[in-house]
Automatic annotation (TrEMBL):
Keyword Signal in record: no
GO molecular function per UniProt: DNA binding; phosphorelay response regulator activity
A Pfam family of this chain: LytTR
SMART domains, A to Z: LytTR (SM00850), REC (SM00448)
Protein name: Transcriptional regulatory protein BtsR
Modified residues (4-aspartylphosphate): D56
Domain Response regulatory: 4-117
Claim: tRNA-binding is one of the keywords in the record: no
Organism: Parvicella tangerina
HTH LytTR-type domain: residues covered: 142-244
Length: 248
């Protein structure tokens, strides 16, 4: 299925590279349009009506977020494009939105196109974008995808995250469990500046929920009346984090 694809990117090299990947690696001959800024993107969107937008975070006259804010609706698949930008990546991940990093990997581009070809548009995209705007730099809440859509949780309500193969199981303050199809490593990187610490190969724990530490080779922590293991390699970092918490 041929798509209308809009590239919103202010760097000429980025425009050319992304367009060449689309044309060379896609199984269909897609129609590609290019915009280099917020205002140009709004103009092209109104006339071109894209099925898929690759949106750079930083543009010549603003940001990709500014472009989205000015749209009344978002009737297309959306993939953010960014170089290494810790703030932008964290914000996008907290909102459970799709993104790719520069330099571009053809497989990631093709995967995004195939998703759009299969009409797998995110039906919750507008709500996720609204969440992104509301959060701004706070990052005190997170969207967790579910089979039916998504749920929003405050980080202070998440007690720990447990790894189960390539899934992560979130355990909340009230004992609820939520299974998410991303690895524990993904969430460890995402929550690195929050109150979460990796205590074991299988566990990422909110230190605010730790009520007791039990000595041992690595030891154990008590969270929600459950005994969770601490690996020997993680023990020192955990004890430091706990000390810092009680010294605040």
């Amino acid at each position: 299925m041929a798509l209308k694809i809009l590239i919103v990117e202010d760097e000429v090299n980025g425009q050319i590279t992304l367009k060449n990947i689309i044309m060379q690696f896609s199984s269909e001959q897609h129609e590609v349009a290019i915009a280099d800024g917020v205002q140009d993107a709004l103009r092209v969107t109104a006339t071109f009506r894209p099925d898929l937008v690759f949106l750079d975070v930083h543009l010549s006259d603003g940001t990709g977020f500014n472009y989205l804010e000015k749209l009344d609706a978002i009737p297309f698949n959306l993939v953010f494009v960014t170089a290494f930008d810790h703030y932008a990546q964290r914000a996008i991940k907290f909102a459970a939105l799709d993104y790719i990093l520069k330099p571009f990997e053809p497989d990631e581009i093709v995967s995004s196109i195939e998703k759009a070809e299969q009409h797998l548009a995110d039906k919750n995209l507008k709500e996720k974008i609204d969440f992104l705007f509301q959060q701004q730099e706070k990052n005190d809440k997170i969207i967790l995808p579910t089979q039916d859509g998504f749920e929003i949780y405050s980080l202070e309500d998440i007690a720990y995250v447990m790894s189960e193969n390539n899934y992560s199981i979130f355990k909340t303050r009230n004992g609820k469990e939520l299974i998410v199809t991303k690895t524990l490593k993904y969430f460890e990187n995402l929550l690195t500046n929050s109150s979460f610490i990796r205590t074991h190969q299988r566990y990422l724990v909110n230190v605010n929920f730790i009520t007791k530490y039990i000595k041992g080779e690595g030891g154990f922590v008590i969270v929600l009346d459950q005994e969770l293991p601490v690996s020997r390699r993680k023990k020192e970092a955990l004890l430091t984090a706990l000390s810092n918490k009680f010294l605040q």
